[in-house]
Amino acid sequence: MTVTTPAGFRSAGIAVGLKSTGKPDLALVVNDGPAPASAVVFTSNRAQANPILWSRKVVQEGPARAIILNSGGANCFTGDFGYDTTRLTAEAVATGLTAAGLPSEAEEILVCSTGLIGTGDQSFRDKIVGGVPELLTRLSDTDVTAPAAILTTDSVEKTAVHAGDGWSIGAMAKGAGMLAPGLATMLVVITTDAALDDAALDRALRAATAPSFDRLDSDGCMSTNDQVTLMSSGASGITPEEAEFAAALAGVCDSLAAQLQADAEGASHDIDIEVRGAASIADAVDVGRSVARNNLFKAAIFGNDPNWGRVLAAIGTTEAAFDPYQVDVSFNGVRLCHAGAPDRPVEECDLTPRRTHVEIELFAGEHTATIRTNDLTHDYVHENSAYSS
What we know:
Number of helices: 10
Pathway: Amino-acid biosynthesis; L-arginine biosynthesis; N(2)-acetyl-L-ornithine from L-glutamate: step 1/4; Amino-acid biosynthesis; L-arginine biosynthesis; L-ornithine and N-acetyl-L-glutamate from L-glutamate and N(2)-acetyl-L-ornithine (cyclic): step 1/1
EC number: 2.3.1.35, 2.3.1.1
InterPro entries: Arg_biosynth_ArgJ, ArgJ-like_dom_sf, ArgJ_beta_C
Oligomer: single chain
Enzyme class: transferase
Protein name: Arginine biosynthesis bifunctional protein ArgJ
Number of strands: 15
């Protein structure tokens, strides 16, 4: 189980025909708990899909009672019709839950969509709204179908679970392309039966996403539909120490971020860029991101070439505090550059394994940050050149 591992949650995933493959494409997670609470983090892209615009209003009203997610269409840049589609979807879920004995309002229903931007016509609306009744009948506290229903170009489901002392966390995620802050092209639903209020959940979620999802930068492209949702049912009756819960949530988010990295479109290397000795966390992140978004560096990794010169060229474009002629650069544990000059022979470095670790020592302070990225491959270019068709 995943999002139904914590007590007080039911979920379901079905196929309504949004995907041409006939695979599941509509999912619902319902919070049946006695003390519902929620927190949400959204994409920072100014171009935001209709579900994001709707969900932003929901979180201002109070705790969410449920979240419905579709793949097979982003419902972004679809005008007033698309926004009305999102509203009608929320209304259908709320009406169904109320009829089933769980009083709900549309303003308590979060909505997420993922897929091709510009997709959201009458057929799209009819399939989603028309599929809600069946989705409600499939709800189960032992469900395992929801994670598959939110996938787009993903090749595997992404889930994580944490077992606390009498309470737990469960999560599912999707994302394989457009992986860059804020968040990544991701939809993430995290559930817990710990008894925590909205404010505590919000603090923990923001602390967890900052070093995980916000440092996943596979291809430098930011999505219009990103949403990470955390819901608490309070069903365990246990209120863990906030620091304990935050640490557990951070571990769940880090696991999901690593799974997203490993499933990035067309990638043949998963690259962790660890920046050490920075004057600040912000500097460490800026330096790491400058390398993660450098196509020359990413192409070199694809070719198994530990081209450390491209690392130095990339970090030199930042305003971080360091002396580029004092920097060390290591690939997979082999220091190839010391104090801005060649060190070990590049032949000593093996980049054939998929996992690649790049360490950059700035000698400018005591702060460290790691950015996750991937290489630039022929497969990535091909997949994204043919995506809409």
